[in-house]
């Protein structure tokens, strides 16, 4: 986990950390790039699913996108000064899809050129047409899946922290108050299962919510340019889940 972004001095070491680690040919760089691909697989799949004829085609395109990113080192020219890594990746997948469509069109016309190498575009790349104007846009699907993936990563990070502190059992009982899945349990029932009073449960839930929010910020801090963008991304995350 990165250090607390509330610490201004430490923040410099956390911004874009995993992205910058993914550069180069070392084993560590390759591992970092693989981690980034795994983290963003679902958002990219969600975007391509809205632009592919079927689920299998979407998955094939997603696999090809990340294969090109890994093989051609598409991450090498990413500049943290451009802002959010999420925006870079959305621009990159738009560029990839445009290349794939151009390649398919050339093949239909009898051409045989391969798609151009992946270049580092931005989120201002031209948008893609969506067949159903009433459906959520591919960009919105990307953002929604990004938000869900980020929440999953933050929850896993918090679980690891709780395990390290010996509080994993309490976390497993109370995490439903972080995910909103509280239909089948009350705070009184949680208190009984943990052998504590209901007041202590309320305090523990409040503490976990604060820690979860910080875990989310820590995840965001790894792929934005500066501290101000953390709050902006928090707002984007909430909007993407609406």
- The termini sit apart by 28 Å
Uncertain runs with pLDDT below 50, 5 residues or more?
A: 1-15, 115-131
**Proportion of beta-strand residues:** under 5%
Question: What coarse outline follows from CA principal-axis ratios?
Answer: elongated
Query: How many strands?
Result: 0
Order of helices and strands: HHHHHHHHHHH
Fraction of residues in helix = 55-70%
What does this structure look like?
The chain is mostly helical and 242 residues long. The chain has one domain (8-241). It is 65% helix and 0% strand. The chain has helices at residues 8-11, 17-21, 27-49, 55-71, 85-108, 138-164, 168-174, 176-179, 187-194, 198-221, 228-241. The longest helix has 27 residues, at 138-164. It is elongated, with a radius of gyration of 21 Å.
Question: How would you summarize the topology of this molecule?
Answer:
Blueprint: H1 8-11, H2 17-21, H3 27-49, H4 55-71, H5 85-108, H6 138-164, H7 168-174, H8 176-179, H9 187-194, H10 198-221, H11 228-241
In short:
This protein is 65% helix and 0% strand.
List the keywords.
242 residues; mainly alpha
